[in-house]
Design brief:
This protein has one domain: Metallo-beta-lactamase, Chain A, CATH 3.60.15.10. Helix content is 30%, strand content 22%. It is built from nine helices and 14 strands. The structure holds zinc ion. The site of zinc ion has 6 residues, from helix 3.
Amino acid sequence: MRRRVWLTVLLLFILSSIAWAAPNRVVFLDVGQGDAVLIASNQGGAMLIDAGTRSAGAEVVVPYLLEAGIEALDAVVMTHPHADHIGGLIPVLESIPVSRIYANYDIHTTETYKELLLRIEALEIPFIQAEPGMEIEVGGIDRIIVLHPDYPLTGGINDNSIVLWMEIDGISFLFPGDIETRAEKHLIAEDAYLKAHFIKIPHHGSNTSSTLEFLMAVRPEKAVISCGEGNAYGHPDFEVLLRLAAFGVDVYRTDLHGTITVLIDDGTVDILTHKRAVKLQAP
Ligand SMILES: [Zn+2]
């Protein structure tokens, strides 16, 4: 009899912990003009792709990670060494243990980049060159594969961005960093598998990216544009919004919606936005 009571208690405990397991999350953090995407699986795996500027890293990314109970990151990908992508990694590394960092080893002689590399070296974090075909292992994520860049690097800093394709629970994502027309054409010519349900629009919605050919290859259903409210670059470009509208893509923007959270649970997708859009999403 006592054994049966214990069995019931154990079953209730297991059932309640299953019911409470957080769904898989892909979070496009509102870091103003920059990029920062957190991927957290329902099995506790966590990866960060870029971390915005240094101030956004300290004021947005680190507080979010701590509040979300992310105590360690299995992988960090720095898509390219511009400050709106890597600056925030400095406060992240000061706050949270990171197991591995993936980079493209591009040369960029800014103080921010130098400081970050010194910090990585001091913390003795494995610093891995991301190559096409390489898989990044994160617990609970079905597949994360590097599509770009090829070596030796030949493009500009944006075009050399690391491009990742990811699948969680049957839902696919393309994270193309800040690539522009040249890298988009290269990926198409290489016959890279680009098709994805979600795309983070390259280079904050600049008109030098998101060509028609590229969007045709990705065929996204949803697009997220990470850009700052009233930014000086005019991102996202009106023509990019027109192209996305022509494809019937649902557009989410961090400048209008704030942080955008995609929840994936058993093949179903929910999209939560931190603030309501105050303007039209697309023309
Ligand atoms: Zn950028």
